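User: Please predict structures.

Assistant: First:
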Amino acid sequence: MPSKEQLQPKKNQKPQPDFQLMLDVITHKCSVVQLHDIMDRYELTALNYNSIGNAFRELGAYEKAEKAYLRSIEMAPSYDESYGNLLSLYIKTQNFDNYEDIYKKGMENADKKSFIIYQDGRHHFLQGNYEMALTAARANFMDEGFEDELIFDLGLRALIQLIRKGDNREAYIEEAFKLWEIARTTIPDSDTVREFTHFFEEE
């Protein structure tokens, strides 16, 4: 139970941002100048900094986005979204000097690992390491129980690339078909299911 002293507002304590202001941040309606003003004027949470990082990234202010994500991680080391978003930023900007450190830190500290593993899988996919991308997708299936369209998409795309390479083709086709069948039940109206339905019809 907080003490009376803890409940008292601190001298010079910054106010918290209101709902509409953060909604503007989340829906990317703020400029770089406005985002800086929010960071200067308000007492922000780790979730707020993560949202501001996303907004900076949308505006192409990648260094500022990185700083916001790092601040979010500093405030809440167990919050997986900030790790995943920062890894995604590093992939986009090809900043692999810091990539491994953030990946390891996220895997050690985050309460949930799925978004972090997904981003690492996407990193491997973009480098042409389709088996490693598939391994990341499989790890998410075990962790999340087949619910995330992004993970289905990553797994199916990796499998299709492996099928096209020709090695172990039959085994990969069987795995891809099983995954597609699960996706059709779990996320039947998704773009992923519609896109890969055409692939399996051709196969």
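Second:
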Amino acid sequence: MRAQLTVLGNLVFVAVVSGCATTPAFAPHGAQKSARTTSTTQTQPSPAGDERDRQVLECLGVYLLRDPEFRMTMTSVSGSADARELNVVLHCRKLGGISFELASEDWLGDSAPAGFVSEDTRSDLTRRNPRPKGHDQPSFQHWILDRRVVMAEVSGMPAGLGSRRAFENAHPKAKGWFAAYLPGYSSDGARALVHAWIGPSEHGACMTAFLAFVGDHWEVKWRRFVYYA
């Protein structure tokens, strides 16, 4: 299935995204703290990701909340809700089974900023997201996120082709949702490559984003949306 690429994705964003700073911050060259964890049983999914992943996906969620082109629900399109009350939903389970090389032409197009599309970030993204084994779907539910990034189960993964109405009824203040693979990182840990499905969308839509660690926090530097038909 070929994508119809949106020109809205061919933009480079270099402004600092407020709300992305976290405490404590991840230091690319330093020791990173392990993610908050909870006790698990045989019936609970295993935890996914670490503190660095939490910061990156939280930053991306806050960014989407303020991105004027991320309008996936009637609430965000109509402007009927107070912007201060809006949120973005993060699918609570990590996705698996990705080969970035197979679809990078569609996902990146020709607009990605020089220096971000590196072999190490691509390889790390693929390495960290193998196909799941058995029925285990590792979960992000042990994370504590910005209150505007809501953790929830989204039906119809990986592309999220579930009911738009059901999602809007369950999350009346949401601009949309994103379901992410674990980020891929550059060898120095200062850049992150994220791929995610976004929705609700009738035929499926995805997003690719690059983030950089600046000072003591992550910033979204570029993102691209692709809508399928």
